[in-house]
Specification:
By secondary structure, this protein is mainly α. About 60% of the residues lie in helices and about 5% in strands. About 40% of the residues are buried.
Length: about 260
Amino acid sequence: MITRFLFVICLSFLSSTIFSNNDIWGPTGHRATGKIAEKHLTKRAKKKIDKLLKGESLAFVSTYADEIKSDRKYSKYYPWHYVNMPLDTDYEHAEKNPKGDLVTGINHCIKVLKDENSTEEDKRFFLKMLVHLVGDLHQPLHIGRKEDKGGNTIQVQWHRKGSNLHRVWDENMLHKWDMSYIELAENAQDLSKAQIKEIEKGDVLDWVKDTHQLTKKVYSSAKTGDKLSYRYSYLYFPVVRQQLQKGGIRLAKLLNEIFC
């Protein structure tokens, strides 16, 4: 009886972990985005950020928003990690989560950071949150369907081991490539100034729309029961790298505007 009880408890825990809609780029992906952003900061913005973070790097603080999930006092920020919306609509016309979402979270962070009356403590907290959330915005299944929890319930195999589509994009491809966040950042595509300007173009809603176009392709890339491995990485790991770079460039754009 005790063994069966423990089995049920473990199964329940695993299910809640697998099907959580709050999964994110793994730490490697978030740190790579933060490191890439640092390359695109103005000297003025970098100086102000260094002072606010007391020397901690954007890469170091990029995982903070996940680390605080274990503390219930921060539970109101959980919905900030994602947006649920159908594939055939856009953010403006999608049903909104009354508790907030990725877009409202990013906008709140920006508001606090721009407010001269915000305390240094609040600015530090919401800067850390912003670094993470901009990374989340560029993981295509963070702008996924509500019914499958951003791909978390689409069960697949990854190199003969159980996984789900969300996790494949969050961590599996990154882990299989076996590069550190520094290696990923240093090997980001060499872009021209015109290409960088093109990535920076628009605002948060434009970037959501951009990622959501990719979301549609990701959903069509696999279905429940598929066995994914090298071929899938060959096709889609370049897209992961591209999204990490876009996230870093766009994060830097926001920070340069905030700390001008």
